[in-house]
Amino acid sequence: MDPTRELRERDELLDRIRPYVDERGITNLTLETLADALGMRAASLREFFETKEELVVALLARNRIRLRAQFARFDADATLTDREFGRSMWNFYVETASDSKLFFEAFGLALHDELYGEFFHGVNDWLDLLADALTRRGMEAERAGAFATLTLAVFRGAMLDYCATGDRVRLDAAMEMWFAVAGSGIER
Amino acid sequence: MTRTVDLENRAALLERVSAYVLEHGLADLSLRPLARAVGSSPRVLLYHFGSKEAIVTAVLRNIRAQQLAVFDHLRSSDLSTPAAVCRAAWAYMTNSRVLPMLRLFFETYALALRDPERFPGFLEGAVEDWLRFLSEPACCKATDPRRARTLATVILAGFRGFMLDFAATQDRERVGAALDAWADSLDALSEKDPDHAQQA
User: Fold this and answer.
1) CB of B177 within 8 A of CB of B165?
2) The whole model's pTM is what?
3) Which helix (H) or strand (E) holds A171?
């Protein structure tokens, strides 16, 4: 098959797989039941993804690209204040909470399953992006490094809470409180 | 077999089973390899616990008791500021003995997000236990209970995110440095109204 076409087909397949995985998760997923649900032969599915783990890594990579693209759009938008940037990112993050759920599930599995070895390589590549954005917004480099780890932690921790409780009102208030402090951190 | 001997056997078995689960996780837990690893048999495990799911429940209850011990530990530490609470919790949780528990916690959390009924009370406890502790007057000086709960939510979010990062990377230096920056910000938060902090 011509490689561009194969990539496109793989992408379309991932579009079809996504709602199924969003609903059922990956812990008990097998390529056989998935192929059944998609009305295709397991062997055909395996032409694209040899293992379940490979499929999960592909889904996560796509989600990550989408989140990063959104981050870049907000980051480039000069009309947003630092606080609005944070707030917009948080809103988008909550709207795509099913992506985070998948991320946390894979994270949980990867902690005990080396088949997901590749997974952790991507966990912290947000750090450079965040540090860079913070530096451009006027934070000194060393402080920006610490704040990148910190910002990632606050977002992920708040999302863990949101996925468990769905308490948007409490979490929005907490994030507002945090953005105010982070804002003053930049100006310091 | 007398009842006492039976209970002692069960307790000893539960310790070994817990140790196995801490190392291997819950997701792929199956009876036969578990029995082999703890020097028992599926039949004996089922005799003591009833079912595989009952084993999972017993293990998590056992581990939850150990996790609640963190609050006792923290209550005996310096809780005068949110920063002090975070530093004490960080020192406790990054102990190498606690790391396997931290990993199992995140694994269970993830499984429970998909299937809450399988882990009754787990998610509620994972969030509420901490929010309640962090809103206690000992570690939160905010007088308005609503503000105390919001502040507790901020603290929990940051702290849990650090723990997630640490469980994956074990990068004590980087995460520790961020925690220091965090602790300073938190103290600013607990003293000032955030809107004033922003304008200052």
Assistant:
1) no
2) 0.89
3) helix A168-187
**Chain B residues in contact with A174 (beta carbon < 8 A):** 150-151, 153-154, 157
CA angle A137, A141, A142 (to 5 degrees): 135
Could you identify the residue written with the tokens 């920063």?
B83
| ipTM of the complex, rounded to two decimals | 0.90
Does B197 have pLDDT greater than 50? Answer: no
Residue A50: inside a domain: no
Number of domains in chain A: 1
- How far does B38 lie from chain A, in Å, by closest CA? 18
Q: Domain B1-50 has what CATH class?
A: mainly alpha
A54 occurs within a structural domain: no
Q: Is A56 part of any domain?
A: no
Q: Determine, yes or no, domain membership for A94.
A: yes
Length of chain A: 188
Average pLDDT of the residues in A10-31: 92
B170: left (phi over 0), alpha (psi -120 to 50) or beta: left
In angstroms and rounded to an integer, the radius of gyration of the C-alpha atoms of chain A is 19
- Domain of A139 in residue numbering reads as 68-100+111-187
What is the distance between the terminal CA atoms of chain B, rounded to a whole angstrom?
72
Distance from CA of B41 to the nearest CA of A (A): 23
Q: How far apart are the C-alpha atoms of A113 and B47, rounded to whole Å?
A: 29
Nearest residue of chain A to residue B163 (CA atoms):
A153
